[in-house]
Structures are given as C-alpha cells and as structure tokens.
Specification:
Helix 5 runs antiparallel to helix 6 and helix 6 runs parallel beside helix 10. The longest helix is centred in the middle third of the chain and has 21 residues. Helix content is 35%, strand content 13%. The protein starts with a strand and ends in a 10-residue tail after the last helix. By secondary structure, it is an alpha/beta fold. It has a four-stranded parallel sheet, sandwiched between helices. It has a four-stranded parallel sheet with strand order 6-5-7-8.
Length: 267
C-alpha cells in the first residue's frame, strides 16, 4: 500500500517533497508553506502546537512526521494511543546540529525506501549538504559574539544547543547567552531582561524573519539593546529550517559572515 504521509513540521514537509514524496502527503500544518506549488492543495490540520487530531484521524495517514522542537509530546502520544485499530507510524525528527541533516536524510530514506526515486534523491541531498558544509568550513571566519533574536516583548533568543546556534557556530559566531537549553522545552529559547551586562559586548545582532517578523522598524530598538553591535535583518527560514534547506542555509551564512561587524546598524 502506498504511504499516506502527514507532516506536522514545515522543514520536514519541504524535505519530503524534495525526496519526491509530495504526492504521498495527505496532511500538513498551516505553517507548512514550502514549496507552495506542491503543498497548496494538501489539507491543513492546525498548527505545529495545536494539531486538530480529529481531522487528522479522519484523513487516516499511515505515517506522521513530527519534531521534538516543533511539536508537543502530547500530540505524538495522542496519535499513538487514540487512532484506534490503524495506528500510523510516528517518525520523530530532531536535528540539533547541521550535520544531523545527514542522519535525517537517511531516516526518511529508510522509512520510504520502497517509493520510486527516494533513495537517489536522499543521496543527492546528502551530497549537496556535505559540499555546502565543506565550503563553509574551508573559509576563515571572524569570531563574533552574536545575539539572534526570535521575538520581542519580551526579547527571546536561542540556546547554544539549538540548530540555529550550532549553524551560526560554523561561521565562528558564538551566540549569547552562554546557556544550553536541553533536549526540549522553553529553555531552548531563553527570554532576556534587556539589561544583561554582556549585551554591550555583542558584535552582531541578527533579527530573524520568523517566528516574529522583524523588519526595519525594529532596528533602532535592537541597536539600543546592543549599542556596540551591527544590527541586521536575516532570513529566519534559511537559518533555522533544517533538511533540504540546510545546504542553502550554510551558503547564506557564508554570505552573512563576509560582512564586517564594524559596519554599524543597517535599516
């Protein structure tokens, strides 16, 4: 029987399409928007944190792809315990470092190896990502202290064991504060009081386009938070989406790191 796949993770949805499994997708979240031409017709079953389990049950997927960071543990447990006789296979993803993309490609390849073209596409994604990682690591990067902001009121950033922080580390950028968030939970995305002494030593502030959509109107506010830093708007999808977007994210990071932190704030 052909798989019926529900993806509850935007990065996974995009990666499944890249593996040639777009026609096997039967459900997605409202945040699964890429690639638009492939997912636009696929039914939505709520958000990543508030999945409509009744709707998902009626769609009757054979596989459900979830993520430790993006989805709630209770959602996965409800799928396993409350779907009656035909319990779908729950595929749990958790890339925490750039190199984890290689394990992810293998995980999805193994799950759908009997589908046409999946093995070859997974190998191509691995090759593409490995080449991008090597390009990034071959370059000499300037070490910088970076504040990556994902929210305001309150300001929120990323712990050093998140995918975002470990990706930025490939360019010699160390995120602050110097905390680890653990495998899951709110600690992975700490809030700031705004008066931390180390904010004055930050070299660069990155204002992400997601989940909070920072724009040019927020640059001055961020500059006041870190007076000595360069403040710039960045593509949050490229820096936080893992999977098939991982190679492009590394190349984008290389472009960002080529600019000097001595340049002051940009609008």
């Amino acid at each position: 029987m052909a798989p019926r796949i529900a993806s509850l993770v935007p990065s996974a949805t995009e990666t499944l399409v890249a593996l040639g499994l777009g026609e096997r997708l039967v459900a997605r979240t409202g945040f699964c928007i890429h690639p638009a031409e492939a997912v636009g017709h696929i039914p939505k079953v709520g958000g990543t944190k508030d999945v409509n389990l009744d709707k998902l049950r009626k769609i009757a997927p054979t596989h459900v792809v979830v993520n430790v960071d993006e989805n709630r543990r209770e959602t996965a447990e409800a799928i396993l315990q409350g779907f009656g006789q035909f319990v779908p296979e729950v595929i749990v993803t958790h890339p925490s470092r750039p190199e984890d993309n290689l394990a992810l490609f293998e995980q999805l390849r193994a799950a759908f190896a009997d589908q046409p073209g999946v093995n070859a596409r997974a190998a191509a994604l691995s090759t593409e990502f490995t080449a991008a990682l090597q390009r990034c690591r071959r370059e000499a990067h300037r070490e910088e202290k970076v504040l990556y902001l994902i929210w305001r009121q309150p300001w929120m950033t990323v712990a050093r064991d998140t995918y975002i922080s470990t990706l930025l580390a490939e360019a010699g950028w160390q995120t602050w504060p110097g905390v680890l968030g653990g495998e899951h939970g709110a600690g992975r995305y700490p809030a700031l009081a705004g008066d931390e002494a180390w904010l004055h030593d930050i070299d660069r502030v990155l204002l992400s386009s997601e989940p909070y959509r920072f724009d040019s109107t927020h640059v001055a506010e961020a500059q006041a938070l870190c007076p000595q830093a360069r403040v710039q708007l960045v593509d949050g999808e490229l820096l936080s989406w893992w999977g098939s977007r991982g190679a492009a994210g590394l190349d984008y990071l290389r472009e960002l790191s080529a600019t000097s932190p001595r340049d002051r704030a940009e609008a």
